[in-house]
Amino acid sequence: MSHPARYWHTLDDGRVQCDLCPRECRLRDGQRGFCFVRAREDDQLVLTTWGRSSGFAIDPIEKKPLNHFLPGSTVLSFGTAGCNLGCKFCQNWDISKSRADDRLQQEATPAEIASAALAHGCASVAVTYNDPVIFAEYAIDVAGACHEVGVRTVAVTAGYISPEARRDFFAVMDATNIDLKSFDDDFYQRITGARLAPVLETLVHVKHETDTWLEITTLLIPGHNDSGDELRRMCRWVVRELGPDVPHHFSGFHPDWRMRDVPATPTATLVRAREIALEEGLHHVYTGNRYHPAGQVTRCSSCQTVLVQRDGYDIRSYRLGLDGRCPECNAAIPGRWADAGEATTRRGVRLSRFLNRGVQPT
Known about the structure:
The protein is built from 9 helices and 20 strands. Helices cover 24% and strands 22% of the residues. The two termini are 28 Å apart. Helix 3 (110-119) packs across helix 4 (136-148) and helix 8 packs across helix 9 (267-279).
């Protein structure tokens, strides 16, 4: 359904400019922006996907990935359609590259989503799958409804967003995982159709201007963003600008969308990236999409005691309390921690129908 959009203004030539992201799409009547879901209707900008989703699922929070935010908890995840980036390697391309009407088959108000999260025992709701920046108004409304009933909100995003919207969006998110797709602006332009600088600005804003818990993911693509030099420059920037305690996830690429000719990322590449990050001073570095047990463990950065042992998305051992302190040396471990009794093993389930209309986990 169409919903009035925020973050736009009318230009002198009569066009409407969307101010949500750095693309600043300028639209005449009937036109849509790059993301396809923000459109001009009459003399206004509207969001065409408010209250509509491409699907819901109950996931482990570690799948987002978030390793320092309520480990062992479940999250109600949903997305819409479209994207404001044009990543050639997109691994959710059937959603992010689709036209809204092709994929949006389920409807939900923010209050219904919050109620469903409570009913299914989810500690949080995640706006994910496609980039939630493009449905910021809907995501912000969902966050408000969730907070009213004690459910937290999580954003999984590329962070390509303009300053005003950035402030509003992250002000209501309890945690976020932001994709830092590369540390090379040429990569961003050629492979994603975006720019690096706004993403770095988002990372700095979230870390220093909000209370939102921050983790970072970099998908390593062989021959494109996995050189030792680039990884070292990236990690040095993170340590210098964000601090050594921001968890960083390196995940493995598989051939998809318009990069099917590129081989999958070897596990050895992820292992090497993790070693580089640790050498450059990051304290909590993880690997994903490949079997690498050492890259799934949370350790105390002071005494190296194993605090959280994972097997895939399952928690096998958990030694942190709500205070987030190491039981051996009492060092504080940055994060938002669950009680040890809550960090139990579980698997994600998908919602077969919609939420409070008789749905049962399958």
